[in-house]
Amino acid sequence: MTDLPSPMPALLPDPGEWPHMASHHGLEVSDPGPEWVALPGVFEGTPWADASEYAEQMASALVMRQREFVGGRISDDLHERVAAQILDVYGRLFGLLDAHYHLLHWPDLRKPPVPVFLGIWEQVRDDASAEVHYAGSFYHLETGGESSIEEEFVADSLGSGLRSLAFVPLKQEAPEDPDGLVGVLTYYWRVKPSAADVRLVAFTNELGRLYAALPDLDAFARRIAITDDQTG
Predict the structure, then answer these.
(1) Are 222 and 155 spatial neighbours (Cβ–Cβ below 8 Å)?
(2) Strand partners, 204
(3) End-to-end CA distance of the chain
(4) d(CA 140, CA 119)
(5) Which residue, among 111, 114, 94, has the nearest Cα to 102 in the 3D structure?
(6) What distance lies between CA 202 and its chain's CA centroid?
(7) d(C-alpha 200, C-alpha 98), whole Å
(8) Residue 30: helix, strand or coil by DSSP?
(9) CA–CA separation, 61 and 170 (whole Å)
(10) What residues are paired with 151 via a beta bridge?
(11) Per-residue pLDDT of the chain (232 residues; tens, 9 = 90+)
(12) How far apart, in whole angstroms, are the C-alpha atoms of residue 130 and residue 57?
C-alpha cells in the first residue's frame, strides 16, 4: 500500500502544445543531501536490471539511512513499504511531467515522499510565452486552479528565475474528494548564455508536507548548474 495521491490530476498542458526540444546540455546539483533519492530513468548501463531490483536495493540503503540520520522506531515492514512506494512512482508518476531527472524528497521514510521533476530544454519562442508555459502561469486557465503565486528566485549558477506555487483541484480526477488540492511548486529559469530553459517541479496533495519541504527544495534549486552535456 502506498500513500501517493491517486489519481493525480493533469498537472501540465499536453506536452504537444509546446515544442519541447531536449538540450545538449545536462544538469548537476552539488551536495544535494541525504534526504534526496535519485530515480534512474533507464537501467541500461546501471547496476540494476530494472525498477524492481532498484527499488529493493534502494529500500535497503534508505532504511539504513533512516536508522543513522532520523532514528525513531523502525517498523518491520518499512523496507517493504519503501520499495513499494518507489515502484509506485515508476508506475504512476514517470511520464506525468516532461523531465530528464526524477527525484524524491524523502527525509523521513515513515512519511510519503515528495516527487520532484527536473528538466532542461533548448530555448524556444519568446520570453513571455516560455514563462507562461514553464513557470506555472497556465494553471488558472488549464486546470481551473488558483492563479500561480509567482516571485523572483535567484540560483547560484542559473541566476534569476521564478518560483511559483499553484493549487490544482482534484475534483475532476477524484470526485470523491471535491475539495482536494494538489500543491504544485515550480522553479523556472531561462538561461540565455546556454540557450536553455530549466524547470524543477515538486508536487503533493499533502500541502503541509510541501511547505515543510520548501527549505530543502529552495536549497536544492539554488545549487542546480548546467553542464556541457547530458551526462550531468
Answers:
(1) yes
(2) 183
(3) 34
(4) 23
(5) 94
(6) 4
(7) 10
(8) coil
(9) 34
(10) 163
(11) 234 443 344 444 444 567 778 788 999 998 888 999 999 999 999 999 999 999 999 999 999 988 887 766 788 899 999 999 999 999 988 877 888 999 999 999 989 999 999 999 999 988 888 887 888 654 544 444 455 688 999 999 999 999 988 887 765 555 555 567 888 899 999 999 999 999 999 988 888 999 999 999 999 999 999 998 654 4
(12) 39
Amino acid at the residue 100: H
- What 3-state class would DSSP assign to 71? coil
Q: Which amino acid is at 181?
A: L
**How far is Cα 84 from Cα 109, in angstroms, rounded to an integer?**
12
Cα(220)–Cα(50) distance, integer angstroms: 27
- Residue whose grid cell is 519541504: 213
Cell triple for 203: 508536487
Phi-psi map region of 33: left, alpha, beta (phi>0 left; psi -120 to 50 alpha): left
State the cell numbers at 47.
547496476
Place of cell 475539495: 179
Angle 51-65/78-92 helices, nearest 10 degrees? Answer: 140
Return all residues near 197 (Cβ < 8 A) that are at least 6 apart.
120, 121, 122, 123, 124, 130, 134, 188, 189, 190, 191
Cα–Cα distance for residue pair 62/109, rounded to 1 Å: 8
C-alpha cell at 141: 486557465
